[in-house]
Amino acid sequence: MPSDHTFLRACRREPVEATPVWIMRQAGRYLPEYRRIREHYDFMTMCKTPSLAAEITFLPVEILGVDAAILFSDILVIPEAMGMGLEFHEGRGPVFPDPIRTENQIQALTVPDPSEKLGYVLDAIRETKERLGGKVPLISFSGSPWTLAAYMIEGQGSPDFRQAKTLMYDRPDLMHLLLGKLAESVAAYLNAQIEAGADAVQIFDTWGGVLSPDDFQTFSLSYIEKIISGLRRNGTPVIFYCRGTGVLLDEVARCGADVIGIDWTVDIGRAREIAGGRVAIQGNLDPAALYAAPEKIREAVKGVLGKFGSGPGHIFNLGAGVAPDVPVENVRALVQAVKEESRVYHDGNHIRR
Ligand code: CP3
């Protein structure tokens, strides 16, 4: 993989000719090709079969022309590797049938050796890299300790994360025990992904935003800092995506990541100002804009590009994952619009290399 690929250059805030673009959840259900493969296999089988994972990872690169691939997998493979049973219920998504409710359950969780328990992900990375043949970089990922813990305690998604917060307030010591094990597991997992050939890694803190600012610092961000400082990066960019934590951007920008992913409730120009050249910014179009007509999507894209303004350090993305019922044509229109409309913001930059 040439390290001067536009996506990797943007992660390092180096000049590019056009803003690179990829889309969270690009390897998923809005693609008819994905749904066709899915008719034959259940979701976990797809995650655990490297040839299928590689095939799905490659789909949006071919169909949309995005500037980066993201590995087809899921954040919940780590808790499974730590010893939690994981089931996929059709129409409901992944479920932990035996959610964490006791100290004994937390004590019983192991910190997995990734090559032993998550070898299928590492194989999928190697196979995908081969398939991509250097066309675009491959992003691999993990959930954040807090977001994973929230799922492990609730057993599934939740509107208020009441169980997870009850444990956090009642027994912060147990919450820290769980988060500590998760942080150790995530760091080892990300290091193994980098060793297997991932060109960038992203940490998803999808549910960091349900915490108060102090709790976010204590129960999420401090573990992110620990994980990132423990990575053997060798120049591999680290992206930290945190949803709903726009008011804490200054703190987030100091976590050690190269890139901060933000949601659409944040003004990306303001985010760039707060970041102050410390990190690149990834985002942040409202995913709902993709329900509009292609010419309206173009206007929305121009809005985000204009807010970020001229110069390097922007990776275009949605502020959250693409919805399953969005027409592929609209997603393609978004990618095209970014490629065409972003050039004016980089005029002359590439000469200054
Ligand atoms: O971005 C990509 O395309 C790469 C693959 C990817 C998936 N999940 C595949 C998937 C990534 C990066 C994820 C991350 C993920 N998984 C998160 C964090 C990011 C986010 O979008 O919030 C979370 C919270 C999960 C857990 C998860 N996985 C849930 C709650 C669900 C069910 C609801 C849903 O969004 O589908 C999944 C299932 C899942 N993960 C699917 C895919 C393609 C759909 C499976 C299917 O029905 O075919």
SSE order = HHHHEHEEHHHEHHHEHEHEHEHEH
What does the average pLDDT come to?
96
What CATH architecture do you see? Answer: Alpha-Beta Barrel
Bound molecules: coproporphyrinogen III
User: Uncertain segments of ≥5 residues (pLDDT<50)?
Assistant: none
- Please give the order of strands in the largest beta sheet: 1-4-5-6-7-8-9
* Biggest beta sheet attributes: 7 strands, parallel
Structural domains: how many:
1
Shape designation: globular
**Number of helical elements:** 16
Which fold name is given in CATH as the topology? TIM Barrel
CATH class: Alpha Beta
Strand portion, in percent? 5-15%
Measured between the Cα atoms of the first and last residue, the distance is: 19 Å
* SS content category: alpha/beta
Radius of gyration: 19 Å
How many β-strand runs? Answer: 9
Helix content: 40-55%
Description:
By secondary structure, this protein is α/β, with parallel strands linked by helices. It has one domain (6-346): TIM Barrel, CATH 3.20.20. It is 47% helix and 11% strand. It is built from 16 helices and nine strands. It has helices at 6-11, 32-38, 43-48, 50-64, 77-81, 103-108, 114-117, 119-132, 145-154, 162-170, 172-196, 213-229, 249-252, 268-275, 294-308, 328-341; strands spanning 69-70, 87-89, 93-95, 138-143, 200-205, 238-242, 259-261, 280-285, 314-318. A seven-stranded parallel beta sheet has the order 1-4-5-6-7-8-9. Strands 2-3 form a two-stranded antiparallel sheet. Helix 9 (145-154) crosses helix 11, helix 10 (162-170) packs across helix 11 and helix 15 (294-308) packs across helix 16 (328-341). It is globular and about 60 Å long. The structure holds coproporphyrinogen III. The site of coproporphyrinogen III (CP3) has 21 residues, from strand 3.
